[in-house]
Amino acid sequence: MDPVKSTISDGKRRASTSPEATTTNGSCSKKSKITRESPDPLRQPHFNAQKAEDNGIVLRKFYPPEMSNARATAYNNDELPRPIEVLQSALSETESQRQAIEVKGAVVHWFKSDLRTRDNKALHMASEKAKEKGVPLIAMYIVSPQDFEAHLTAPARVDFILRTLEVLKEVLAQLNIPLHIATVEKRKAIPGRIVELLKEWGASHLFANMEYEVDELRREAGLVRSCLENDIAMDVVPDTCVVAAGEIENSTGKQYSVFTPWFRSWIAYIHGNGHVLDIFEPPGMNPDSARDRFADLFESKIPDAPDGKKLSDEEKKRFSSMWPAGEHEAHRRLNKFCEERIGSYIAQRDLPGVAATSALSVHLASGTLNARTAVSSALAHSHTPRLDGGSTGMQTWIREIGWRDFYKHVLAHWPYICMNKPWKATYSNIEWEYNPAHFEAWCAGRTGYPIVDAAMRQLRHCGYMHNRCRMIAASFLAKHLLVDWRMGERYFMEHLIDGDFASNNGGWGYCASTGVDPQPYFRIFNPLLQSEKFDADGVYIRTWVKELEGIGGRAVHDPYGRGKGEEARLAGYSERIVPHKESRERCIERYQEGIGGTPK
């Protein structure tokens, strides 16, 4: 497959942010007129909502149009309950009733984004509960085609999940633990189907790890109560972060919105609560009788990817080779990184042409590796008990784990960022562009800026992009092209094998200056300077932009501006679609119009 091949539309199709003729998630939004019939001012859509509607920003099959600034502000001012608070209330209000339920025929663990047996808190709790009462442990995973669609899950990531389930199923089977994979076509039917399965298995207790996205928090809050109505106790525990969301507050008792002071508090919290780095043991062995009793569950098959999420045979082979699945592979990569590269991480992490990073993001996103495990392993390899000890490389890498936690904390506290809304509501007033030619040139890696084009081509071929290049590409779309950042956010999710909503949204918020700690006027990356600084020899560019393989020296960063234009043109490389200086000035002017203020 040619990773740079692109189909350019005639400009009429704007239902999806994907440049392909059909969306990668199989859903085509339809233009519809947004009404303002509700008398509730909190439910009046933002004045830019119709433009977003017409350009496919919101998946209207599942979600309402962009919310009003007033409703976002109400969340921000604690006037509306956050989904995480709704779940916490459900757990708190039902605690005594759930604890009174006796263990019956089985205990169930529901796998979600935690596809591992090692260091899995909810799985460990389920195993301990089962062993305590001498009943079998059953594992379950729900394949939801509509969830994949609604959450923009990349086909490459769906493939990775299904391959991981194959590995996980074998690991559990060695412990006599069945992994039942159930496909539920309608996402709203998932809670009801789970209750049906537990009743069918004679199970009285359900354990799951908490996820911080809005849909999941609301679903689990309802499921806790519906399980109780069926004499089933459901426990939902935080395990995806090193420090659970809500545990760190600033001096006024609020959630931090700036990373650096939050990170200092994160380190202090871990040092003061060492148990948060305790590793949970894998589940124990089920009795042999579980094999006979649940024989049909052991025969549960891993389904094929649903329509709209399928890969070609060539893509399956390629992604399987680049991204082997399973927790054993995650631990192999983690140990190799800690033994060989963590010490030099600070010096080389921003160089996309060097294999200097851990490449563990896909495992953190799918849960084949716990972030807590990653931090603990780094400390052990560095022979230090402190996060601010050891090499500067280790400290810098742990800081990146901290960024992952931070963005999940932000998501839990400001849930409207999960609803197509900027963190700071007034940033909704910025007028974005919806230029099909510009957007599709960016998607295809044909902007005329070599470092941007290399990044986008890497994404299409690998389902992955180096982090420094994610920032460069995102900044270019939002600030050079002024294309709505949500189109880029969605495109990344539709293609990233390591797609994680909180981290992806946080990264786009950082680059588009619409997220926490926005810096609209001086966070405008110069692609040429970024290219020369982080890919000085052009190794990364020449790897992905084949038209420039023969361009020597510094000209590879700007062939048309450095006397190699004819060679680049003959090789088929695009000229710049926008000039840098004028684009920067236009960006500053547009932000001033939308949010006011003066550039620093």
Molecular structure report:
The structure is a single chain. The protein has helices at 49-54, 69-76, 83-93, 95-99, 121-133, 145-150, 155-173, 190-201, 214-229, 259-272, 289-293, 295-298, 313-322, 327-340, 345-348, 361-366, 371-382, 392-413, 436-444, 450-462, 467-480, 485-495, 501-512, 527-534, 539-544, 565-570, 580-595; strands at residues 106-111, 137-143, 179-183, 203-209, 233-237. It contains 27 helices and 5 strands. It comes from Venustampulla echinocandica. Belongs to the DNA photolyase class-1 family.
Briefly characterize the structure.
Its cofactor is FAD; (6R)-5,10-methylene-5,6,7,8-tetrahydrofolate. The chain has 600 residues and is mainly alpha-helical.
Helix content: 40-55%
General form: globular
Please list the strands of the largest sheet in the order they lie side by side: 3-2-1-4-5
> Which percent range describes the beta-strand content?
5-15%
Largest sheet data: 5 strands, parallel
The tally of structural domains comes to 2
Q: Write out the CATH superfamily name of the largest domain.
A: HUPs
Domain Photolyase/cryptochrome alpha/beta: 105-242
Site (Electron transfer via tryptophanyl radical): 432, 485, 508
Keywords: Chromophore, FAD, Flavoprotein, Lyase
InterPro entries: Crypto/Photolyase_FAD-like_sf, Crypto/Photolyase_N_sf, Cryptochr/Photolyase_FAD-bd, Cryptochrome/DNA_photolyase_1, DNA_photolyase_1_CS_C, DNA_photolyase_N, Rossmann-like_a/b/a_fold
